[in-house]
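Worked example (supplementary).
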Amino acid sequence: MTTSPQARRSARPQDSAVLHTYETLIVGAGFAGLGSAIRLRRAGIRDIVILERGNAVGGTWRDNQYPGAACDIPSNLYSYSFAPNPEWSRAYSGSREILSYIGSLVRQYELAPLIRFGQEVIELAFDKASRRWLAKTAAGQTYGARTVVMAQGPLSNARFPDMPGIGCFEGHKIHSARWDHGYDFAGKRVAVIGTGASAIQIIPEMVKQAGFVKVFQRTPGWVLPRPDYGTPDWMRALFRRAPAAQSALRQVLYGAHESMATGLIWRTPASGLLEQVARLHLRSQVQDDWMRRQLTPDHRIGCKRVLVSNDYYPSLQQPNAKLITWPIATLSPRGIRTVEGVEHQADCIVFATGFDVSKTGTPFPVHGLGGRLLSEEWQRGAQAYRSVSVAGYPNLFFTFGPNSGPGHNSALVYLESQIDYIVQGVRLVIERDLKWLDVHEGAQQRYNAAIQRRLAGTNWNSGCKSWYLTGDGFNGTMYPGFATQYRLQMRRLPQRDYSLVR
Amino acid sequence: MQLDLEKMRDRIKASQWALADIDWDAPGRERVTENPELYAKLKAFMADLMWIEHVGARGFAAMAKKAPNDTLREIYTYFHAEEQRHANAEMALMQRWGMLDGEGLPEPNINIRLVVEWLDAYADEMPLSVLGSVIPMLEITLDGALCKFLLDTVDDPVCHAAFDKINADEARHLGVDFHVLEMLGHGPIYRQTLDMAGRLIDPRLLMGILAYLPLLNRMRDNLVELGLKENKLYEAIAKYKRVGGTPGGRRNPWFQLISRQGAWVIDRKNVFYHAPVDALVRLTGKIPPRLLPQIPSWVHELTWKPTA
Ligand SMILES: Cc1cc2nc3c(=O)[nH]c(=O)nc-3n(C[C@H](O)[C@H](O)[C@H](O)COP(=O)(O)OP(=O)(O)OC[C@H]3O[C@@H](n4cnc5c(N)ncnc54)[C@H](O)[C@@H]3O)c2cc1C
Ligand SMILES: [Fe+2]
Ligand SMILES: [Fe+2]
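After joint prediction of all chains, the assembly is encoded as:
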């Protein structure tokens, strides 16, 4: 390290003459940002700063603390392979346990000194003259860095839907990703809007806690049974003593999820089989014909995120719960008016309606070479080279960039290979002291043409609407293939596809 | 009748109303309740009307599953709910007039019960070509003519307030109905005819027809009983043929069949049609309700209460 963190912090960052230039600046302290820092440091990159707008680490798992919050990929796979945790208490751990795993990463790898909390990046611009990126934050500060890792999260901006009348509801409003732990649900009439991944975790808990729960569904999703179990003590002891056993389990889980890809990503006999499993699951848990019809999806399995739950269907049939499939006409001061003319009154509305996903823009302006603006180039859909680099934006690396989304496997499997790729890129810039490393426009175009060709045959592009697609049906979100294929393409950064400018 | 479906969907969303928008306790109730001659007949009529709306609702639910594109699917999902709203509003009127016994639903007549039964069992399996051709007929005759008749007969202002809203919805329904009827006529006639011939020997559809025909005749009888000029109903049936008879509509063999059958309904002298169908009405009247399967659970969603 060249300067002590103290000295760095006391320098007036606004004064660009004395502005410290970090080797790497990371936006966001969730799984992606922290994982990048860990791997970069191990590769010898020491001068790192992490800008985090919140006041704690953890991102998704800091924000999503609603009752029932848990991962829906087994924890042994939804964790870093380089930091196995023998102590997972369940197959699918809850939000708090995942958050404390992230906390333990921060402690174990001594990341705390790198993180600047309360620093929300509002603009990134590449300064050609000083060949560095300048990041402006909402707190009025500027940070300079040779390289930047974008790790601000694919699902980090909670969003209330733009429903008519949303402003006039006088009761309590809660977003699933901004849970209000002070609110007492006992005896309350609660409306839950949405039936996606978060909703089906929240609903069973709400039904236990609240007086009456109405669930407003627009489109049902496919629900598969969830093979959850509490980890027996012997297993934890085994994993502590023989880490190889745990990584073997991880391999098995990885293989199991990979095999689902055949059914989830493409229309194959396996899709029919999975749909059959989901139908049987529904049939075994819901007796009433009409309710089963309401809960049966019209879209192919895999077109939207597949849900996993054992207690969602049963909870909807409790005496204090009701599934409502009438479209919502408007919110009113006292509740929700649906199109069949009834006002469903509620004390509290829980919005499990998802996130603002910038499919055609960027969460804040990013200016590249010659002042080009990324959101303009992405107007019709986001594009990148191998999901990490974008031509014209040198030394800038994306995590969960365009077409990196897994439909069937742990996001962290994808993330790890992105990080390893990014480490190669950052090392090139720092070790060879490059002015910039910029991917060739042509390579990016060829890559995307191939991706879009392959996407055309997938379930996501089969005509159903989902948050994966832009309004015009462009898919800049998902990776059309197995995780293994993705990892293979990310193993090596091909220098021939980049210009390395000294 | 060409229509911009997306504009229509937006218009539908912008024209929503709720039971709570109407003051069900406003003055004027006595204009019905203090007219004993009208009262009893109206009670039966309202029950039928409400049930027909509800049956129409279930029809749209089936159509939503068949819709060829997302916009139409969304429109049908709304229509499903809107027909339910009409049924709910009509039930609220019955409540206002003291026509509901306790909290219970009015009893459906046996022909409606049969149609409900059929819809529940088979509607989802019928192709859009069948549903999309029958629904406009039901909408234009039953919904259309019955509502109009009601407004001519009843001068309770709350009833008028409710039906202003219901009729505005219906105008949009008819717009879409006939647009789809036209659309269904595209494609080679011989293919459509073959397809229809295949369907017509499908016992599930035959059962539907057996439920549908007596319903029309029975409604005619009920209306006459109530003092409706048969002509009103016939005008509506004729309108189906007129409005639906666009080039596309005429190419649709289902349209041809249904408008032909409509003409038979109108023609009282057509004994070949009416003798057997009236016999069916009488026959179905003999079915003991306890032999019918349990009422499907979607029926219990009906409510006259503006808030829940
Ligand atoms: C409820 C829920 C359940 C999920 N379950 C699973 C699962 O089971 N399996 C799976 O594979 N994936 C799951 N995911 C996906 C999950 O988002 C990823 O697995 C992963 O947590 C993403 O990590 P991240 O670090 O990229 O983003 P995040 O965890 O969102 O972290 C981003 C961080 O960046 C910060 N930030 C954002 N913008 C700025 C800015 N402008 N300036 C500074 N800081 C900023 C945020 O505050 C946040 O701390 C789930 C997501 C949600 C919402
Ligand atoms: Fe109606
Ligand atoms: Fe209608």
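Two points are worth noting when inspecting this output. The interface with chain B takes residues 288-291, 293, 298, 326-327, 329-330, 332, 334-335, 337-345, 465 of chain A (CB under 8 Å). Residues A 27-33, 51-54, 59-60, 64, 71-73, 78, 120-121, 151-156, 198, 363-364, 399-400, 410-411 surround flavin-adenine dinucleotide (ligand 1) (CB under 6 Å).
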